[in-house]
Specification:
By secondary structure, the protein is α/β, with parallel strands linked by helices. It has a single domain, classed as Spore Coat Polysaccharide Biosynthesis Protein SpsA, Chain A (Alpha-Beta Complex), CATH 3.90.550. Helix 4 packs across helix 7 and helix 6 crosses helix 9. The longest helix has 15 residues. The chain is globular and about 55 Å long. It starts with a strand and ends in a 6-residue tail after the last helix. The relative contact order is 0.16.
């Protein structure tokens, strides 16, 4: 079973990426590689950051998407255009997961920090990817509603709230999702990516999980666990006000990753001090 990480990011998050990079030096475990996808203009900065490490494969957005990265999306909940931003990163995760030869993709963002070795025995139960259900059933309700609307009849929201990045996505399951999206666009002669860009809000994981649940495939690929395994959403930094009190997890029950969300704008040096990482090189 081959598991690789997929990480779309931007130049502005380079310093946080370096924290993830350094945390993975001793914690990459069973990950076969980490594919980093950045805007074409940002390739030189990231090439320098991962120089000499074959664990990383650096690709430009236009190569992965097969076209120039879009600049705008249409938000059908607000009935107006908006900047593409994070939607591009979500398209990249879907496209990469559907096209890679790996069996599973672990989706990452630059603000993830590896806390322990990323090993198969933690990520999988009986060959199925772990999934942790959150106790906040309407936290991202609009993303689930938008995903169900895109997928069409038979794909209603289950009411289960799945975790955000990092998450495990079956590449076989993702290809089935993309095939379904392609059938939805065939009569309009439009690519599935173009359809999604005109129908935000959604997310890569709400599309993925809503599709698997509606198609009766969830139990084929995933096993629900009772404790946080990939990350602990209840011990993360989502807002700047949470950083001072935050402490990384340690020990055998620690989640694989911690999250200090980039929008919290925590000082990278302070993050390194709390996580025990050496100063940036």
């Amino acid at each position: 079973m081959i598991v690789e990480a997929i990480l779309p990011t931007f130049r502005r998050d380079l310093e946080q990426f370096k924290i993830l990079r350094d945390s993975l030096k001793v914690n990459r475990g069973d990950l076969s590689r980490c594919v980093i996808v950045v805007p074409d203009a940002d390739i030189p900065a990231f090439a320098e950051a991962v120089a000499g490490d074959p664990f990383y494969l650096l690709r430009g957005e236009s190569v992965v998407l097969g076209r120039a990265a879009p600049r705008y999306v249409i938000d059908w909940s607000r009935r107006r255009p908006g900047r593409a931003g994070r939607w591009v990163q979500q398209l990249i995760k879907l496209q990469h997961c559907a096209s890679t030869s790996a069996d599973w993709c672990l989706t990452l963002d630059a603000d993830c920090i590896a806390q322990r070795p990323v090993t198969r025995d933690i990520m999988f139960v009986d060959g199925k990817g772990v999934d942790q259900v959150l106790d906040c059933s309407d936290l991202h309700g609009t993303w689930y509603q938008g995903s169900a609307r895109i997928l069409g009849p038979g794909f209603k929201r289950s009411g289960v709230e799945h975790p955000v990045t990092p998450t495990l996505m079956s590449t076989e399951g993702t290809r089935a999702l993309i095939a379904h999206l392609t059938t939805k666009t065939a009569k309009f002669d439009r690519h599935w990516m173009a359809m999604l860009l005109r129908r935000v809000p959604w997310s890569e994981y709400t599309l993925y999980y809503t599709y698997l649940e509606g198609a009766g495939l969830f139990d084929r690929y995933h096993h629900i666990v009772e404790r946080p395994v990939l990350y602990n959403p209840y011990n993360a930094v989502w807002y700047a006000s949470q950083f001072d009190a935050w402490q990384p997890e340690t020990g055998p029950d620690a989640a694989l990753f911690a999250i200090v969300q980039s929008t919290a704008k925590a000082d990278p040096a302070a993050i390194r001090a709390k996580t025990g990482l050496a100063p940036a090189q």
